[in-house]
């Protein structure tokens, strides 16, 4: 499972890193040859204003995935800090942090994301901030749970008795032991984020045009979908492939790292 | 029992308060200022802007504004919509009912599909288990708006004549209304069914290994009697909880689905409000949706404790 997931991830990373240089055409270049079916030059055909679909999928994938990775990295960083502090320090600090996260948790993720992006304005930066905020509570909880039990283990007490500082104990002696569930949850969060990013773009709240994005491509193609089904199926398959990558990866990691189902 | 309900609600109160603060803050977070936003795109003089500010109470300290807004919200006054100049609550209620109906149908579908696949997966094992788990992984990877778009595409390509995508109001024709919501509900239900299916599978496997099930088999009860009276009944408790907790996912998903199928529910209202930058409406929707999710969670907790005597919140 992990091997399959890693191979799929490698393909996604290739798209992010290489992006426009592996795209057969300039993704923004329009032509008179619109809504063409697939042929030898345009492998997946063209869209409503004659842009090469494959190139747009590659360049759009780069945009979608970059936002996803950066946003989840931020959420992970915030979740690690909050979860570790909350679980390790405990007491009133734990109570305050958890109640604050409960507030964010009370909103349907997608609804909160729409409202925040709408208030701040749809730019790439705001999109990343919003998604990071929305997914921080989930990650923080996943960190906090195991920290609560690991901090009572003997080796922590031993470290403390020989005079290791609390900060060092938390980072060096507790954090590495709780990393497995965090890896699994991060992978699942990546899958969810793909959904949130593309869904927001689908509603027109993604990065502003002309930057292609799988979500906005799907939305644009809906008008012409009976004429050129590939313009809908292309981004749809791309979205599914990307989320499937992270789900397969999460399932694989869960088996390899022996993380129980919740 | 009453004590437990009161306690659970009391625990939710601080979270609700936080939710209201977030909803209030959303309006404050907008670029420029609220007075300008409420005037729309028309250019107005500085004096007129000041007048609007005074009328809206924006010259008062922020905490006073929050308390005044909260007081109004508690009395059901969510302010006037920028777009229509009518009370937000009046606009919201009929749309909320549509969304509630859609969510309910989707929830029932997800529950049926999820429990059936989960039960089959756990009881039959082997190849069925593999197929169900593969199917679930795939479903989890297909976002609901992609499902909805593909449904519309397939219907357009192969059944162009049937008008299944026109929403019929409930008052007009209840049967046609429910029928018109079936496909939208299905696209919402598929993802949610995965969680229910996985939890059903886990619960049934857990119950199957209990001693009382072995005893029931050993004393010669038929397989169907064991299934009905011992497995399903005991395994369903956690499943119902999980279904309730999926409310948030269903509500969030309905925003997209309603937009795609043009159903006049709360999701579509939110989308319209976002497009027209109708901040009081956005605020109202966010507040109502989050409160509903919180209250459903409380209800689920209480139901759980009612069904399972081992759970107590005292």
Question: What does this 3D model show about the protein?
Answer:
Chain A is mainly α. Chain A has 10 helices and no strands. The longest helix of chain A is centred in the first third of the chain and has 37 residues, at 53-89. Chain A is elongated, with a radius of gyration of 22 Å. Chain B has a domain at 98-264: MetI-like (MetI-like fold, Orthogonal Bundle), CATH 1.10.3720. Chain B is an all-alpha fold and 314 residues long.
CATH superfamily of the domain at 98-264 in chain B: MetI-like
* H/E series of chain A: HHHHHHHHHH
Q: Can you tell me the overall shape of chain A?
A: elongated
Rg of chain A: 22 Å
The termini of chain A sit apart by 19 Å
Provide the descriptors you would attach to this structure in a database record.
heterodimer, A: 262 residues, mainly alpha, MetI-like fold, 0% strand, B: MetI-like fold, 13 helices, globular
Q: What's a concise summary of this model?
A:
The complex is a heterodimer of chains A (262) and B (314). Chain A is an all-alpha fold and 262 residues long. In chain A, 71% of the residues lie in helices and 0% in strands.
Question: How do the strands and helices of this protein lay out in sequence?
Answer:
The complex is a heterodimer of chains A (262) and B (314).
Chain A: H1 2-18, H2 53-89, H3 91-106, H4 109-120, H5 124-150, H6 154-161, H7 166-174, H8 179-202, H9 214-221, H10 229-257
Helix pairs in contact in A: 1-2, 1-10, 2-3, 2-5, 2-8, 2-10, 3-5, 4-5, 5-8, 6-7, 8-9, 8-10, 9-10
Chain B: H1 2-28, H2 34-38, H3 46-56, H4 62-74, H5 88-124, H6 126-141, H7 144-158, H8 174-208, H9 211-218, H10 223-245, H11 247-260, H12 266-275, H13 279-307
């Amino acid at each position: 499972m992990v091997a399959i997931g890693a191979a799929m991830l490698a393909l996604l990373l290739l798209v992010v890193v290489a992006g426009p240089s592996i795209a057969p055409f300039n993704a923004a270049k329009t032509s008179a040859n619109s809504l063409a079916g697939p042929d030898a030059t345009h492998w997946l055909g063209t869209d409503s204003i004659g842009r090469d679909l494959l190139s747009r999928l590659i360049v759009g994938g780069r945009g979608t995935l970059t936002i996803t990775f950066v946003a989840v990295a931020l959420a992970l960083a915030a979740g690690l800090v909050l979860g570790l502090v909350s679980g390790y320090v405990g007491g009133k600090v734990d109570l305050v942090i958890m109640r604050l996260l409960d507030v964010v948790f009370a909103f349907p993720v997608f609804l909160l994301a729409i409202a925040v992006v709408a208030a701040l304005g749809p730019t790439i930066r705001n999109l990343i901030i919003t998604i990071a905020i929305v997914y921080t509570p989930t990650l923080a909880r996943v960190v906090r749970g195991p920290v609560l039990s690991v901090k009572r283990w003997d080796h922590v007490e031993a470290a403390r008795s020989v005079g290791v500082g609390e900060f060092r104990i938390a980072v060096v002696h507790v954090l590495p032991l709780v990393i497995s569930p965090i890896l699994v949850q991060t992978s699942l969060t990546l899958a969810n984020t793909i959904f949130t990013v593309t869904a927001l773009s689908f509603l027109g709240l993604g990065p502003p045009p002309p930057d292609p994005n799988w979500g906005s491509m799907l939305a644009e193609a809906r008008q012409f979908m009976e004429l050129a089904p590939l313009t809908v199926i292309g981004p749809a398959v791309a979205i599914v492939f990307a989320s499937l990558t992270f789900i397969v990866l999460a399932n694989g990691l869960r088996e390899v790292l022996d993380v129980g189902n919740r | 029992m009453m004590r437990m309900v009161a306690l659970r609600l009391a625990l939710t109160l601080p979270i609700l308060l936080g939710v209201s603060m977030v909803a209030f803050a959303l309006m404050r977070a907008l670029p420029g200022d609220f007075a300008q936003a409420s005037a729309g795109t028309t250019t107005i003089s500085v004096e007129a802007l000041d007048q609007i500010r005074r009328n809206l109470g924006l010259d008062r300290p922020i905490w006073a504004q929050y308390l005044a807004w909260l007081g109004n919200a508690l009395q059901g006054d969510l302010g006037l919509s920028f777009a229509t100049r009518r009370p937000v609550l009046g606009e919201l209620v009929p749309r909320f009912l549509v969304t509630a109906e859609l969510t309910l149908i989707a929830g029932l579908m997800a529950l049926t599909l999820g429990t059936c696949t989960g039960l089959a997966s756990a009881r039959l094992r082997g190849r069925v288990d593999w197929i169900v788990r593969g199917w679930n992984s795939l479903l989890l990877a297909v976002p609901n708006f992609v499902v909805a778009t593909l449904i519309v595409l397939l219907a357009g390509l192969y059944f162009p004549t049937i008008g299944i995508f026109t929403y019929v109001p409930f008052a007009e024709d209840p049967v046609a209304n429910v029928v018109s919501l079936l496909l939208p509900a299905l696209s919402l239900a598929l993802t949610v069914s995965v969680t229910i299916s996985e939890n059903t599978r886990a619960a049934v496997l857990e119950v199957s290994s209990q001693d009382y099930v072995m005893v029931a088999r050993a004393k010669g009860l038929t397989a169907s009697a064991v299934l009905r009276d011992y497995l399903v009944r005991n395994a369903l408790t956690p499943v119902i909880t999980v279904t309730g907790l999926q409310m948030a996912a269903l509500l969030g998903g309905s925003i997209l689905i309603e937009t795609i199928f043009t159903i006049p529910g709360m999701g579509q209202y939110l989308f319209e409000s976002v497009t027209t930058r109708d901040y009081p409406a956005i605020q109202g929707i966010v507040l109502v949706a989050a409160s509903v999710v919180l209250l459903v969670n409380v209800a689920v907790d209480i139901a759980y404790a009612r069904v399972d005597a081992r759970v107590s919140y005292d």
